[in-house]
Amino acid sequence: MVEASISPSVELLLELQQVLENPLLGIAGAFSDLLQGRIPHGALVIFTEDCTGRPQKKVGQAEVIDHVTIAELDVLRDAVALRGGSVWNESAMLARSDRTMSAWIASTGALLVLTDPDLTGVTPTGVRETRDLVAALWDLVASGIRTQVVAAAPDYLRDSRMASRDRATLIAELTDAHSTTLELLLAVLRSRQTGDAAARQTAIDLAVAAMVQLRAVSDRDRLLSEEPVARAFERLRNDLRPLARFGDLDVQFIEPPVNGRALPGEVAHAGRAIVRGAVLALVDQPGVARVRVQWDCDGHNLLINIRDDGPGDLSAETPSVRQLVARVAALDGDFHVDATPGWGSDISVSLPLDPPSSAIAPASGWGLTTREQGVLDLVATGARNRAIADALSISENTVKFHVANVLRKLGAVNRAELASLVRQTETPSALA
Questions:
Q1: Half-sphere exposure of 205 (CA within 13 A, CB side)
Q2: Do 216 and 235 lie in a common domain?
Q3: Residue 79 domain-assigned?
Q4: What would the pLDDT profile of 296-327 be if each residue is shown by its tens digit?
Q5: What residue stretches are annotated with the HTH luxR-type domain (predicted)?
């Protein structure tokens, strides 16, 4: 009996399905593997603002993935947008040097970059077909990334928050260091004791431009990692509009303060997902006709309240609510359900805007560097080398180097012992 062969189109769909089934940290590698047989490339880089903790996802040549920056990708995305959403085999500044690359922008706004794409021997018609195919595949993958972020598992939220904290700290340190250097340079060049006025003015202009560019990088990173509370609430309103329009449900919105503190990206995403899940859990009860949604921000926490007019028998043990409780716990928040039979259920959520300070002993206690401490934080969560490399934007070999140093400094034999040491520092009796 001859088995029926699978057509190329069906095979491609199956491969795409496997890519989309990967966790967020594995999508870049899986998508690169899918494309390699159709368009060989040196590195694959994804830049998406949906993933606020790690907007870059990358795999391939170390000289690319170890040095590519958000600032470069931001400039590249604007250039690709001006060219109609895709470019092919063009030169661009990437990872600190000019490289040949092809790039596509998905309908979600996410950018895909392939470095050194190679279609040697392919006809012009074949090249066009390949470009169109990659564009279509990328649009589906980018939509899949957005869907996963909306429904991110608690572990990803914890990891994302940690990545956001580390990136923000690094940006602040770089900004302070370079600003101090440039301010000193300006002070010297403005001194009347410096000769050659024309040269001095040129140097001043260059230094001022450098300071402006540095501040722009810092501001851009802040835009990636934060979302104004009013805009975040408006996106939530749009997400819930289909329920109100087609579900005969009266959804009432209580507006947050317009000038409230901006929300960290992972808090805004998680907050919207929690509200959507809570509303669906409420309307799944019989007799619910009205739901009120309220957001507020006290400067330290995002405060969420969802109330219905249903039977009032909802609890934290209700299956549709359990995952919401886990999401809130992942962000160190509080989740409460108050239900009054015959009057309805009231869900209150508080999400801290700032991550808690690390429970691990200070780096000075173990002699760890800042980078080693960051690696240890992630090792303690059970993250593997690939996930740590992606989270910290370093190579896997660099991760292995830091892990070896941490093991040596802490006198641990393996990663399990490292996690155990971390847990001991979190236990009050261990500090007595």
A1: 6
A2: no
A3: yes
A4: 887 788 888 999 888 888 888 888 788 788 77
A5: 361-426
Q: How far is CA 70 from CA 28, 56, 220, 224, in A?
A: 16, 7, 9, 10
Q: Taking 80 as the threshold, does the pLDDT of residue 251 lie above it?
A: yes
Residue 95 forms part of a structural domain: yes
**Alpha-carbon torsion 29, 30, 33, 34, what sign?**
negative
* Per-residue pLDDT tens digits for 167-186: 555 555 556 556 655 666 66
The structure tokens 């508080």 sit at 350
One domain, residues 193 and 259: no
The domain of 400 spans: 363-431
C-alpha dihedral, 216 to 266 to 351 to 422, nearest 10°:
-100
Lowest mean pLDDT among 176-190, 235-249, 387-401: 176-190
Residue 363, pLDDT score: 44
- The label of the residue with tokens 């895909």 reads 112
How far apart CA 178 and CA 170 sit, in angstroms, is 12
Report pLDDT digits (tens) over 117-163: 988 888 888 888 999 999 999 999 999 888 777 665 555 555 555 55
Cα(333)–Cα(337) distance, integer angstroms: 14
Rounded to an integer, what distance in angstroms lies between the CA atom of residue 296 and that of residue 233?
Answer: 10
User: Residue 357 domain-assigned?
Assistant: no
Q: Dump strand ranges (E) for 176-308.
A: 226-227, 250-254, 263-264, 290-297, 301-308
Q: In which band, very low, low, confident or very high, does the pLDDT at 263 lie, cut at 50, 70 and 90?
A: confident
Does residue 432 have a pLDDT over 50?
A: no
Counting the structural domains of the chain, the total is: 4
Choose one of 169, 195, 223: the last residue of a domain. Answer: 223
Both tokens of 104, joined, read 């596509």
316 and 239 co-located in one domain = yes
Compute how many other C-beta atoms are within 10 angstroms of the C-beta atom of residue 114.
26
Identify the band that residue 111 occupies on the pLDDT scale cut at 50, 70 and 90: very high
Q: What is the signed CA dihedral for 270, 272, 277, 283, rounded to 10 degrees?
A: 160
Find all residues with CB under 8 Å of 73, minimum gap 6, and list them.
45, 47, 56, 111, 113
